């Protein structure tokens, strides 16, 4: 059985057994918050359970490193949609210790791309188009600095109301303990 077949079989059982009823909610988050967290598998459930959150409490976004690097990319667009269309009043940016994106080195990733059929011509075309794939794939040196930078990028976005608190946190992926990096309430008071 392929992974796809396994997933589809499990989905069929889930629907037939009406397991979905345990997750019933609507599209507006109960806690009026959006969380941007890393896609690290250790955070899949830990990131919400560690704060006592359940299905429907928040909007949750995930990407590599919990980073907003482009002001008009899909992650920032999702944050703005959450605020202006889905009733969100607060933004939480949560990185984590031992982040794989922080340790990411572009060259091994690019070599793996080549092994899987991405040609040097593709890299050359992108480079001539002004896209430095090596820079684009580069991780960060400090999770604390990355969280601060992402909070700054979100907080200072020209389309985000200044009244929206943007908080910065770092989670321990082993224990779920969260460290406060930036208190968004204090930033909105200034």
Please describe the topology of this protein:
Blueprint: H1 3-16, E1 33-38, H2 46-49, E2 58-63, H3 74-85, E3 90-96, H4 106-115, H5 120-128, H6 133-137, H7 143-155, E4 166-171, E5 178-182, H8 184-189
Parallel strand pairs: 1-2, 1-3, 3-4
Antiparallel strand pairs: 4-5
Describe this structure in words.
The protein is 38% helix and 16% strand. It has 190 residues and is of the alpha/beta class. The chain has two domains: 31-104 and 139-190, 3-Layer(aba) Sandwich (Beta-carbonic Anhydrase, Chain A); 105-138, no CATH class. Strands 2-1-3-4-5 form a five-stranded mixed beta sheet. A hairpin with a 6-residue loop joins strand 4 and strand 5. The chain is globular and about 50 Å long. Keywords: Metal-binding, Zinc. InterPro entries: Carbonic_anhydrase, Carbonic_anhydrase_sf. It catalyses: hydrogencarbonate + H(+) = CO2 + H2O. It is an enzyme of class 4 (lyase).
